[in-house]
């Protein structure tokens, strides 16, 4: 038997505070699809994905019906294509991308991630071919997401790859110029990318992962925000440590939902359950915003002085709650601050409270990085690489994941609006501080692994 | 061993449980299970006791009536009979919650929809609240067992029709979601 309070508080989380499973992501290893003939390889990929994922959407729909908790997205992550398709040239890589897109469409999922490469210490020919294929692959597919890991704490930062990604992001933006550079919204550059992240655009299935696995991404910024707002409204003298405790407990409840439903989906599909990624991941909806939490914590808006401290507290409290709720917490697990995907963060960027530089500072304590940031179309490749390198350095030194998903919107300038549609949202284009890093980026090479890596 | 059921109903005041328990002890009845609740001003409790060897149920009834009637308490006694519930063939636990205007017949309609499908109501609460200019609002919470042979979609359709008629918000969710979000060591019910 449950108390009235227990039933009503759970109902409030689902009905009024946008608690949902942001994604159930089926990871599929493609290593056993390898073939020397590219067409055979594509056929193998299509067959394996459509066989394993055939029941993903129906089973998720049944779980949604049973538990009354929306499962917003059903997605796929696959082995890094640059590794499994290392033998293929860029044109063939594009065909592989289109095959993945077709398989995703066939099974009714909205995104497939894993068109990516792990190049933190250097590029193989396959890695280079995949990166070269990115602009065309992202322009000619609808559901494909790509991630390139250019740095780790153990390897350092591959600055040649960073430079290459600056050029590639520019080329991808040009190739999708008619859609505000949409291709770049599905391309992320990572440091310390987790092997089991279920969220896009970084989802891929790591090489050490099983043949198939269900990973779940739980969100819930609305639930956390309401808990803080109610607590402050009930007790104006409440202190930050008490609010941190509240966020921790709320995160625990949210994580439990993910674990329960994730395990059920996995069991019904006869596929192993992997991890719950508890991340405060916003959508462009009122009441589903990470930015609103900053207001509830007493800041005028995200980006105001104190924002980094507030985010640090939030991120840590979320991790604590998640860790208590499940032994299988993984992925990114923390708080996302994607600009275009969050109405309040987008508004803070628009009114100038939030700058690119402040965002960068905040990413040192959040779970991802510079996410969904629209930049002026004339931002040059070296500058984009410089921004990426800064972000990677934060991840490498702090032994955490960081990422950069930057969109230099062709033909638009700072202050203009760019729209990417759906969950990707829209955002005001943020100005980039003047100053050149062209000479620095051109040197290339490797920024060595930091002392923090010497842990053996 | 024979068991008896004793139910007690009356206006709430301190000492009711003490009085009932004392009466039962004096009669040699061991209390096995008991559940009591207070609804606004009213007390209600059910005791299941083991029957003593040398007394009859009629004698216990007379004993309790004599002692408790003066306190304004109504007592009913009976032998415990083990009856099969209609849903004893197994099923899944669900929580049905509604919210909306408090109207005569609403609970009957919901409960009838559940009964028609063979759902057993394991726990039920109705909470009336004044609704900020919307008149009296009622929240109901039913914890039920959905028989294994009945599809969830049928229950949802049936309850959905009642909800529409009475202008209710309704949710039907597997009880595991409430256990997961509220209990440190949730006893997650398994399908049978």
Overall 3D geometry of chain B?
globular
| Total number of strands of chain A | 14
* CATH architecture annotation name of the largest domain in chain B: 2-Layer Sandwich
- Count the helices of chain B. How many? 5
Q: Structural class, from secondary structure content of chain B?
A: alpha+beta
Can you give the helix content of chain B as a percent range? 25-40%
Structural class by sheet pairing and helices of chain A: alpha/beta
Which of globular, elongated, flat, extended, rod-shaped describes the shape of chain A? globular
Oligomer: heterodimer
Unreliable spans of chain A = none
Would you kindly provide a written description of the structure presented here, covering whatever features stand out?
The complex is a heterodimer of chains A (456) and B (192). By secondary structure, chain A is α/β, with parallel strands linked by helices. Chain A contains 16 helices and 14 strands. Chain A has helices at 4-15, 38-52, 56-67, 81-84, 90-107, 125-139, 159-175, 182-185, 221-234, 240-269, 291-296, 307-325, 343-350, 356-362, 381-397, 438-442, and strands spanning 21-28, 71-78, 111-118, 144-152, 156-158, 187-191, 212-218, 272-280, 334-335, 370-376, 402-409, 417-419, 426-428, 446-447. In chain A, strands 1, 2, 3, 4, 5, 6, 7, 8, 9, 10, 11 and 14 form a twelve-stranded mixed β-sheet that branches. Chain A has a two-stranded antiparallel ribbon with strand order 12-13. The longest helix of chain A has 30 residues, at 240-269. By secondary structure, chain B is α+β, with helices and mostly antiparallel strands. Chain B folds into two domains: 3-79, ACT domain (Alpha-Beta Plaits), CATH 3.30.70; 91-182, ACT domain (Alpha-Beta Plaits), CATH 3.30.70. Chain B has helices spanning 16-26, 57-68, 106-116, 152-165, 176-182, and strands spanning 3-11, 30-39, 42-50, 73-79, 91-101, 120-130, 136-147, 169-174. In chain B, strands 2-3-1-4 form a four-stranded antiparallel β-sheet, covered by helices on one side. A four-stranded antiparallel β-sheet of chain B has the order 6-7-5-8, sandwiched between helices. In chain B, strand 2 and strand 3 form a beta hairpin. The radius of gyration of chain B is 20 Å and the shape is globular. The chains are: A alpha/beta (456), B alpha+beta (192). The A-B interface holds A 1-2, 4, 6-11, 13-15, 65-69, 253-254, 256-257, 259-260 and B 95, 97, 122-123, 125, 127, 139, 141, 143, 152-153, 156, 169, 171-182, 186, 188.
């Amino acid at each position: 038997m449950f108390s009235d309070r227990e039933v009503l508080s759970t109902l409030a989380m689902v009905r009024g505070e946008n608690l949902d499973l942001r994604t159930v992501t089926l990871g599929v290893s493609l290593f056993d699809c390898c073939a020397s003939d590219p067409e055979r390889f594509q056929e193998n990929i299509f067959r394996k994905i459509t066989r394993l994922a055939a029941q993903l959407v129906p089973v998720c729909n049944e779980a949604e019906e049973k538990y009354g908790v929306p499962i917003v997205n059903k997605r796929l992550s696959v082995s890094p294509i640059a590794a499994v398709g290392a033998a293929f040239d860029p044109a063939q890589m594009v065909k592989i991308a289109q095959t993945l897109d077709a398989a995703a469409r066939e099974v009714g999922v909205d995104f497939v991630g894993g068109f990516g490469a792990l190049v933190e210490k250097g590029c193989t020919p396959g890695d280079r071919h995949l990166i070269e294929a990115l602009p065309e692959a992202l322009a000619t597919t609808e559901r494909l997401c790509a991630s390139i890991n250019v740095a780790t704490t153990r390897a350092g930062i591959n600055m040649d790859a960073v430079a290459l990604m600056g050029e590639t992001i520019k080329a991808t933006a040009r190739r999708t110029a008619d859609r505000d550079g949409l291709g770049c919204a599905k391309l992320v550059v990572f440091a310390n990318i987790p092997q089991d992240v279920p969220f896009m655009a970084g989802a891929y299935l790591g090489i050490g992962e099983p043949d198939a696995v269900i990973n779940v991404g739980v969100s819930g910024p609305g639930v956390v925000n309401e808990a803080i707002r109610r607590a402050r409204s009930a007790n104006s003298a409440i202190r930050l440590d008490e609010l941190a405790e509240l966020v921790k407990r709320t995160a625990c409840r949210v994580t439990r939902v993910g674990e329960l439903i994730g395990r059920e989906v996995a069991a019904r599909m006869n596929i192993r359950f992997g991890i719950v990624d508890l991340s405060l991941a916003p959508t462009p909806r009122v009441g589903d915003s990470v930015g609103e939490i900053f207001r509830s914590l007493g800041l005028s808006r995200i980006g105001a002085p104190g924002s980094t401290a507030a985010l640090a507290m939030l991120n840590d409290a979320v991790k604590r709650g998640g860790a208590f709720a499940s032994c299988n917490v993984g992925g990114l697990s923390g708080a996302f601050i994607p600009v275009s995907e969050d109405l309040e963060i987008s508004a803070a960027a628009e009114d100038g409270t939030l700058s690119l530089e402040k965002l960068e500072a905040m990413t040192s304590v959040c779970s991802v990085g510079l996410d969904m940031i629209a930049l002026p179309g004339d931002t040059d490749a070296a500058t984009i690489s410089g921004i990426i390198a800064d972000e990677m350095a934060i991840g490498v030194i702090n032994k955490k994941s960081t990422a950069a998903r930057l969109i230099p919107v062709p033909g638009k300038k700072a202050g203009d609006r760019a729209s990417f549609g759906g969950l990707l949202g829209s955002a005001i284009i943020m100005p980039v501080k003047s100053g050149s890093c062209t000479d620095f980026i051109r040197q290339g090479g490797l920024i060595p692994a930091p002392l923090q890596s010497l842990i053996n | 061993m024979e068991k008896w059921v004793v139910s007690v109903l009356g206006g709430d005041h301190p000492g009711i449980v003490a009085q009932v328990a004392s009466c039962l002890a004096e009669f040699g009845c061991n209390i096995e299970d008991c559940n009591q609740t207070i609804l606004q001003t009213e007390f209600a409790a059910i005791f299941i006791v083991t029957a003593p060897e040398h007394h009859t149920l009629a004698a216990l009834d007379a004993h309790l009536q004599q002692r408790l009637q003066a306190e304004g308490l109504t007592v009913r006694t009976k032998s415990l009979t083990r009856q099969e519930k209609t849903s004893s063939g197994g099923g899944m636990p669900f929580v049905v919650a509604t919210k909306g205007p408090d109207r005569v017949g609403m609970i009957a309609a919901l409960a009838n929809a559940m009964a028609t499908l063979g759902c057993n109501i394991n726990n039920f609460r109705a909470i009336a609240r004044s609704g900020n200019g919307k008149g009296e609002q009622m929240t109901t919470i039913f914890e039920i067992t959905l028989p294994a042979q009945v599809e969830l979609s049928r229950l949802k359709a049936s309850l959905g029709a009642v909800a529409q008629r009475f202008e209710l918000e309704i949710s039907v969710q597997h009880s595991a979601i409430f256990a997961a979000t509220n209990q440190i060591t949730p006893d997650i019910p398994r399908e049978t």
